[in-house]
Write a structure and sequence with these properties.
alpha/beta; six-stranded parallel sheet; 9 helices; 9 strands; about 20% strand; disordered C terminus; binds adenosine monophosphate
Length: about 300
């Protein structure tokens, strides 16, 4: 028997419920999502539960973060299935599933502009994307109020930007990052994996394979950015329809390293590419993430 939780559509209802929870001495945990929930999202919910005892999950496909040629219309939506998945968890107190018109009121014109963090990696390839993300996340934080919010490292640049927004705007939100959840063969789980045809799903393993090859080289002492990048790029180029980027960047500022540079103790290796029509992203933090994340030492691993 599911223990759900209320499903509400109006921001004011969410605010009232969260205020009431805080008044009872509860800590609010918040997991923003675009729905089509998978194991990655559920892991964030469990993480939120470790840090808080009144858990809010939002399900909102935010139009302002999609470009005109992106997949806003066809993005997978199935609220009933999502609510069932959350009900099974019994960890969620409130699901916030607003209409676009409730999040962007008539005449809405305020946008949150992101600085240099948005100028690297996906930023130049998806104009306006991070402004849309920053705006909706700020709105959601306004709706929920003081909380601990959990975001996945799968969207590494997004997490960095959200941390910066919370810091720069003094938002009463503690940001927690969660490691990437992968299928047993290494593929990072994603709502967009549903678009992949079976053969494309096999090709998509080139992303995690590239990250693993570079991670192994890093673990063996390789520090040249170009060599590490090249290992990942070769694996991705072998499977991708097109490569947006394979970049080694500073893990905090996201400024890319020149290929000639030696990286220090820690750097992010990030990939964006298309497999068929589907745009996929993945990353690893060299010097921080361990190889087990890729199914290393796992008999199911297919590297
Ligand atoms: P989305 O619904 O794609 O907007 O994602 C909602 C949240 O889930 C974001 O914080 C994502 O980073 C996180 N997320 C998505 N996929 C994964 C994954 N494979 N592992 C961990 N977190 C994830």
């Amino acid at each position: 028997m599911p223990l759900i939780q209320r499903v509400v559509a109006m921001p004011a209802e969410v605010r009232a419920a969260c205020d009431a929870a805080r008044a009872r001495g509860l800590l609010v945990g918040f997991v923003p999502t675009m729905g089509a929930l998978h194991e990655g999202h559920l892991a964030l919910v469990r993480k939120a539960r470790q840090n808080a005892n009144f858990i809010v999950v939002s399900i909102f496909v935010n139009p302002t973060q999609f470009g005109p040629n992106e997949d806003f219309i066809k993005y997978p939506r199935n609220l009933d299935v999502d609510i069932d998945r959350l009900s099974d968890l019994a960890d969620v107190d409130l699901v916030f599933a607003p209409e676009v018109s409730s999040m962007y009121l008539a005449g809405d014109e305020t946008r949150v502009t992101v600085g240099a963090l948005a100028s690297h990696l996906c930023g130049p390839l998806r104009p306006g994307h991070f402004e849309g993300v920053a705006t909706v996340v700020t709105k959601l934080f306004g709706v929920v109020g003081p909380c601990t919010a959990v975001f996945g490292k799968k969207d590494y640049q997004q997490l960095a930007i959200v941390r910066r927004i919370a810091r720069d705007l003094f938002l009463p939100v503690t940001i927690v990052g969660h490691p990437i959840i992968r299928d047993p063969d290494g593929l990072a789980v994603s709502s967009r994996n549903a678009y992949l045809l079976p053969q494309e799903r096999v090709r998509a393993l080139g992303l995690s394979r590239g990250l693993l090859l570079a991670s192994r080289a890093f673990a063996s002492g390789e520090r040249n950015a170009g060599v590490l990048r090249g290992l990942a790029l070769a694996a991705v180029a072998a499977v991708a329809t097109s490569v947006d980027y394979v970049t080694v960047a500073d893990a905090e500022s996201l400024v890319p390293f020149d290929d000639a540079a030696a990286i220090g103790a820690r750097a992010v290796l990030a990939i964006a590419c298309r497999i068929g029509q589907t745009r996929l992203i993945d990353n690893v933090v060299l010097g921080e993430d361990d190889l087990h994340a890729f199914g290393e030492d796992d008999s199911h691993a297919q590297f």
